[in-house]
Structure formats: structure tokens, C-alpha cells
From TrEMBL:
This is Fido domain-containing protein. SUPFAM superfamilies: Fic-like. It comes from Kitasatospora gansuensis. The lineage of its organism: Bacteria, Bacillati, Actinomycetota, Actinomycetes, Kitasatosporales. Transmembrane segments: none annotated. Gene3D superfamilies: Fido-like domain.
Length: 297
């Protein structure tokens, strides 16, 4: 593989990563070829957004049934409702931020945070300050959760290292934004594949926790935007958040620990985990397509 000037390209050559990339590509292509996508693609996109938002909120501790999320109109009554509401707002607007993302990822991340917390919050849309501690990523009650139907063995919850100080986080975030903006002008097919780029953006935002709240839902939304921008999932019908929730919080933490280690083995494991979650998201949308074809939706 020709790496060109993309610093992420070597990650695509780590053991197991080419296979993960190929499996994801095959699964996504199969979903895009489904007969239901010919006439009802917009409906599949909407359903994917809803299910992805529900799953992302669940990973932040607001595990509501899908039909409850679909039915509710008031999302300001309590902390769980606000978490679900923020995830829904982000999911609804993520696709509209694509053109801005390509040249100003920082502006999009600020917008995602504002959507997550709501307009009335004092810290909406701004990174955490030096005197603001980074929040925990996972609710304590979910720390030992196991994924339902997971293809992985039961994971053991791990203790993640603390996020870097606000100034260091801001500097690293700026580097990430520059890297992403540079990719917007690259030749097609050059550099790291979409899965690798999305996994790195996802992992780096979780590592940095640049905001004083809602970093998890923002990181997962950013991953979805990358998958759209990089052309792997241009119609946003592959809700990786669903797969992450299905695999379980403990497996999520364990894979993230690999990313945070910075080792080749750890990075490869994180990318593989993101790939597996994406394939499970594809499976979810395939089931939606099948239901549509049978006239059940």
C-alpha cells in the first residue's frame, strides 16, 4: 500500500487491520446493494439515525427502549431524557455538517457539543478550561456490562488513564483537525482507509475528552461523520453505535485501552473493535431493510 503523506496510512498495515477493513467494505457494499435501498434509502437513513442515537445514549447511561425514544417528544425532564435528546439532536444534524467538517473539524465538534448540552448551557460549544476536570467516559453502573450477543468473549472492565490537561488536549485536537483538513484535498484512494481514519478520530476524542461533558456521544458522532466524508457510508445507514452497544461497555473500554496504549497491537485491536461494531450496525440496518421488503415497516 502506498502511504503517500498520510500519517495514518501505516495503521492500515498493522496485523489484522487489512482483514477488518476488507470485511467492513464487503458488509457495507452488501447493504448498499439491498433491494430496499433502491426506493427507500431515505427511510433507512432516518431509521439508522434513530437507532444510532438510542445506542449512543445507552452507552452514556440512558438505555431507553427504541420505541420509547421514537414515541417521546419531551427530552428535558431529567438527566437521562436530556442525554437521549442530545444524542437525537446530534444524529439528526450530523449529516448536514459534512461540508464544514471537511475544512473545519473543530467548528463541527463545537457544534456537536452545543447540540449535546443544549443552547442554554454556559459551556455549550467550548472546550474545557484548565481548571475543569475531564469527565468520566462511562457511567460506573455500566463498567462491567457485557454485550448481548457479542462475538467476543466476556470482557473485564479496565481502568482507563486520565485525560491530558486542557492545554495538551487542545493542542492535540488542533493537530487532529489539521490532519483531517489535509485529507480533504488528497487524491481519491490515497492514504488510510475510512475505517482506520474513523477509528482514530473516535479514539482520539475519547482519549482527549476535550469538553467538560458529552465526549462519548461526540466521539461516536464524529466517527459517523468521518465514515460519510470518507465515502464508506455516504448515506449514513450503518449505525456503528448500535454495534458498540451490543458488544458492551466493558469490551468498549478494553478496546479503548488498546488505543490509549499506543502500541501496534493495541491500535490494531481498537480498529478491529470499531470494525466489528460497524459490521453489527450494518446487520441492524439490513434487518430494517428486510422488514421494509416484507412490508412490516
Amino acid at each position: 500500500m502506498t502511504t503517500g503523506t498520510d500519517p495514518l496510512a501505516p495503521l492500515a498495515e498493522l496485523p489484522g487491520v487489512p482483514e477488518a477493513v476488507a470485511e467492513v467494505r464487503k458488509a457495507v457494499d452488501r447493504l448498499y446493494g439491498h433491494r430496499a435501498m433502491r426506493r427507500r434509502a431515505a427511510e433507512v437513513t432516518s431509521e439508522s439515525a434513530l437507532r444510532g442515537a438510542r445506542a449512543s445514549a445507552a452507552l452514556d447511561g440512558a438505555d431507553w427502549p427504541l420505541e420509547e425514544v421514537r414515541r417521546r417528544t419531551d427530552f428535558g425532564a431529567d438527566p437521562e431524557a436530556r442525554t437521549v435528546g442530545g444524542a437525537l439532536r446530534i444524529s439528526a444534524e450530523a449529516g448536514q455538517l459534512l461540508s464544514v467538517w471537511r475544512h473545519s473539524p473543530m467548528q463541527v465538534l463545537a457544534r456537536l457539543h452545543l447540540l449535546a448540552v443544549g443552547d442554554g448551557a454556559a459551556d455549550a460549544g467550548r472546550p474545557r478550561k484548565a481548571d475543569e476536570p475531564a469527565p468520566e467516559l462511562f457511567p460506573l453502573e455500566l463498567a462491567t456490562a457485557e454485550g448481548v450477543g457479542s462475538e467476543l468473549p466476556p470482557a473485564v472492565a479496565v481502568t482507563l488513564p486520565p485525560a491530558p490537561p486542557a492545554e495538551e488536549a487542545a493542542a492535540r485536537l488542533d493537530q487532529l483537525a489539521q490532519l483531517l483538513a489535509a485529507r480533504a484535498d488528497r487524491a481519491p484512494g490515497v492514504g488510510a482507509p475510512a475505517l482506520v481514519v474513523a477509528a482514530v478520530v473516535h479514539g482520539e476524542l475519547l482519549a482527549l475528552r476535550p469538553f467538560a461533558s458529552h465526549n462519548g456521544v461526540i466521539a461516536r458522532a464524529a466517527q459517523r461523520i468521518v465514515l460519510i466524508a470518507e465515502g464508506l457510508d455516504p448515506k449514513a445507514i450503518c449505525p456503528a453505535e448500535v454495534g458498540l452497544a451490543e458488544l458492551g461497555t466493558a469490551a468498549y473500554q478494553q478496546a479503548l485501552q488498546g488505543y490509549l496504549s499506543g502500541t501496534a497491537e493495541g491500535m490494531a485491536a481498537w480498529i478491529a473493535h470499531c470494525g466489528q461494531a460497524l459490521r453489527l450496525g450494518v446487520r441492524e440496518s439490513t434487518a430494517v431493510c428486510e422488514a421494509m421488503q416484507r412490508g412490516m415497516v
